[in-house]
Specification:
The complex is a heterodimer of chains A (163) and B (291).
Chain A lengths: L2 E5 L2 E5 L8 H8 L18 E4 L2 E4 L12 E3 L17 H9 L8 H14 L5 H7 L11 H18 L1
Chain B lengths: L1 E3 L4 H10 L4 E3 L5 H6 L7 E4 L9 E3 L4 E4 L4 H8 L4 H8 L4 H6 L2 H7 L7 H7 L2 E6 L3 E6 H4 E3 L2 E2 L6 E7 L6 E6 L10 E8 L4 E7 L9 H10 L10 H14 L10 H31 L1
Parallel strand pairs in B: 1-3, 2-3
Antiparallel strand pairs in B: 4-5, 5-10, 6-7, 6-10, 8-9, 11-12, 12-13
Helix pairs in contact in B: 3-4, 9-10, 10-11
The chains are: A alpha+beta (163), B alpha+beta (291).
Chain lengths: 163, 291
């Protein structure tokens, strides 16, 4: 089947989509967007988190056909001017780099999208709020402490930028 | 495989009548797992997420009618004050991403004995609104909706449109056993709802029988035992008896998540604790009213 979907601001048409495949599969295998990671395929790990009409969701649990006419924003679409060579990372991405919140990096795209959503809704999140927001994103390397540091740093930067 | 995308409820009923083997799809948090793992290859998927009126609710002051497509996250934010037991259960579902997509309608459709919505729906006396193109609307009490492991009372041409429940007339609590605070399928769960004006207690047990079940004998015992008017403190012996009757109402199995004995024991503890919280709230209201 054909799916019409806006991804990272650009309207796209994707053909030969299998009716039973996930949005994650379509993004990675048909649209050249491998930023969202495929790990558990059952919503347990959060590595495939994307915005669907502005709401974070596990793209492995969204049928590709359900994205028809919707807006998807992936980790590739967070950086400013992300389609150009001079693109600047989103403050959340910068904070993950600076805080050392990235080790193997596999879980990072999902954590970045989910953290991006948190600090856009809750500008100054408590530790409990950060832990709750990231409860569905598994990381087997970092032990999470540096990820918490990164989210706090990103929230601070964001507050400073808007002050 | 067909991918059916009805734009309206009438179109959805027509599609389900024409394709009775089509699997309804809301948030996908159950159905897509089965597809991703090759455990299910339905002839068709019936995407219900385009139907706007499934994603809202009506509250006319009597019963609240909640559309089958309201995700847990919106239910918590928008109805948590009026449906506290269900909202507590909704907060324990999966993770934020799952709660953004998963729905009570989907939980009812899947009818897993471990579904978190079921115990509070049973305790509150909720009613499921099902509809077919051929026979119209059918109202099915939650207690009659679950018919077996992952089986429900729907006919092949029926879809779940909404569920109806009164705003909480008294304290409601939900409790669930799991290994951490997120991403947990219940080892077992329990919900209680006090209906003070009817002098009645409602209960629901999850993940401890082939279907979600009420603990009817426990409800009857407690409804007669409680001092609804005087709101005197709960006798320890009554709370213990209630817990034992709840455990008796379960028919659990040994599995990877826990043993039958553990589930019975945990249910008796959750029943006692949630009753204590609920009764303290009820008694506290009376003190506030008196002062």
């Amino acid at each position: 089947m054909r799916v019409n979907v806006t991804v990272n601001g650009a309207p796209q048409t994707v053909d030969d989509v299998w009716e039973g495949e996930s949005l994650l599969y379509m993004l990675r295998e048909r649209m050249g967007l491998p930023g969202s990671k495929n790990a558990c395929e059952q919503g347990e790990c959060g590595s495939c988190t994307v915005y669907l009409d502005g709401v974070p969701a596990c793209s492995c649990l969204v049928a590709a056909g359900q994205a028809e006419g919707r807006e998807v924003r992936t980790v590739e679409g967070l950086a400013e001017g992300s389609t150009g060579a001079d693109g600047r990372l989103d403050p959340v991405q910068e904070a993950f780099v600076e805080a050392g919140a990235v080790q193997c990096g596999f879980c990072t795209p999902g954590l970045v999208v989910q953290s991006h959503d948190l600090i856009s809704r809750v500008p100054d999140p408590s530790d409990a709020e950060i832990r709750e927001a990231l409860a569905g994103n598994l990381c087997r390397c970092t032990g999470y402490e540096k990820i918490l540091d990164a989210v706090r740093l990103a929230a601070r930067r964001r507050a400073e930028a808007s002050a | 495989m067909d991918f059916l995308r009805p734009p309206t409820w009438a179109d959805a009923l027509a599609a389900k009548a024409e394709h009775p083997d089509a699997v309804p799809l809301q948030g996908g948090t159950d159905v897509m797992v089965e597809l991703n793992f090759g455990a299910r290859r339905p002839a068709a998927l019936l995407d219900l997420t385009r139907i706007a009126d499934l994603a809202g609710w009506d509250d006319d002051g009597g019963r609240i009618r909640v559309g089958a497509g309201v995700p847990y996250a919106r239910l918590i934010d928008g109805l948590g004050d009026r449906l506290p037991g269900l909202a507590q259960a909704a907060r324990t579902v999966g993770s934020p991403q799952i709660r953004n997509r998963g729905t009570v309608g989907g939980n009812l459709g899947a009818a897993s004995p471990a579904g978190d919505s079921h115990p509070p729906l049973l305790a509150a006396g909720a009613v499921v609104e099902a509809e077919s193109a051929a026979r119209g609307t059918r109202m099915i009490p939650a207690a009659e909706f679950y018919t077996g492991v992952k089986r429900n009372a729907l006919a092949p041409d029926e879809l779940i449109r909404a569920f109806w429940t009164p705003p909480a007339p008294g304290p409601q609590y939900f409790s669930k056993i799991g290994t951490r605070n997120a991403m947990v399928i219940a080892v077992c769960s329990f919900a209680i709802a006090l209906h003070p004006e009817e002098r009645r207690v409602g209960t629901g047990i999850g993940s401890a029988a082939p279907t979600p079940v009420r603990a009817v004998a426990a409800e009857e015992f407690l409804s007669a035992e409680l001092d609804w008017e005087g709101r005197t403190p709960l006798a320890v012996s009554a709370a213990q008896r209630f817990g034992a009757l709840v455990a008796d109402a379960a028919a659990p199995i040994d599995d990877v998540r826990g043993t039958a004995d553990y589930r019975r024991h945990a249910l008796s503890v959750m029943a006692r604790r949630t009753l204590t919280w609920a009764w303290n709230d009820h008694a506290g209201d009376s003190r506030r009213e008196a002062s």
